[in-house]
Amino acid sequence: IVASDLSPGRRDLARRCGADIVVDPGVESPYDRATGKGMISDSPALYELALSSMRKLRRLPGWSHVYRAADALGAAGPKRPVIFECVGVPGMIDGVMAAAPLNSRVVVVGVCMGTDQIRPTMGIGKELDLRFVFGYTPLEFHDSLHMLADGKVDVSTLVTGTVGLGGVGAAFDALGDPEGHAKILIDPRSTAVAPSV
User: Fold this and answer.
1) What backbone phi and psi angles, to 5 degrees, belong to 190?
2) Integer Cα distance of 101 and 27 in angstroms
3) What is the pTM of this model?
4) Which residues pair with 47 in a beta bridge?
5) What single DSSP character describes residue 164?
6) 148 in any annotated domain
7) What's the half-sphere exposure (Cβ side, CA atoms, 13 Å) at 132?
8) Which CATH number fits the domain that encloses residue 34?
9) What is the pLDDT of residues 43-73, one digit of tens each?
10) Whether the Cβ atoms of residue 164 and residue 187 lie closer than 8 Å to each other
11) Is 80 exceeded by the pLDDT of residue 39?
12) pLDDT digit string (tens) for 68-116?
């Protein structure tokens, strides 16, 4: 897991949540750090992988059957990174597509409120899978709440504050500062009107 954020507080949170690599995108590229992890970021590297694989495979009798089996198991191609775009500003999706390794899945979570442009040829040339998501299904809510209630998932690192119903406005104001809070829990039993840990 490679986490990238301009905010030092968010980078620290990513470390505490278990990110393997944490990057300040103002200093270095998260894609450069991921390239050494088996990701292929350019066409010449992909062609070299294909040619060297074919040279090795052709030595095997019945190599096409071996290749089909490897392909069915997802082991025939390079790793397929999943990139979550969570910023939601104009130009971000296009920037992610430009820097993403080949065959990446880009999941757009950030909500861009303005007009945006992308270059489809870049996505086609890299065989990117671009997905947009919104909200959750009732089943996802059900499963998530049960995992939390059963203690299967620990979110204590993410929950940086708690407010009661009277503090919802203050919670949203506090979330405007990326250094202050990550997630604020709204507890109807609480009387807190300002986020408290």
Assistant:
1) -80, 150
2) 19
3) 0.72
4) none
5) -
6) no
7) 4
8) 3.40.50
9) 777 778 778 877 887 888 888 888 788 888 8
10) yes
11) no
12) 888 888 777 667 889 999 999 999 999 999 999 888 999 999 999 999 9
By DSSP bridging, strand 129-132 and strand 21-23 are unpaired
Ranges assigned E (strand) in the chain: 2-4, 21-23, 82-85, 105-108, 129-132, 159-163, 183-186
The radius of gyration of the chain from alpha carbons, rounded to an integer in Å, stands at 21
What confidence tens digit (pLDDT) does each residue in 140-175 have?
A: 999 999 999 999 999 999 999 999 999 999 999 999
Count of domains observed in the chain: 2
pLDDT band at 31 (very low <50, low <70, confident <90, very high): confident
Other CB atoms within 10 A of residue 30 CB? 19
Domain ranges, residue 11: 2-132
Same-domain status, 108 and 161: no
Query: What is the DSSP pairing of strand 21-23 with strand 159-163?
Result: unpaired
DSSP-assigned states of every residue in 68-133: HHHHHTT-SS----EEEE----TTHHHHHHHHSPTT-EEEE-S---S-----HHHHHHTT-EEEE-
Residue labelled with tokens 């300040």 = 24
Q: Are 68 and 29 in contact (CB under 8 A)?
A: no
Predicted pLDDT at 72 = 84
Structural contact between residues 108 and 95, judged by C-beta atoms closer than 8 angstroms = no
* Paired tokens of 117: 């442009």
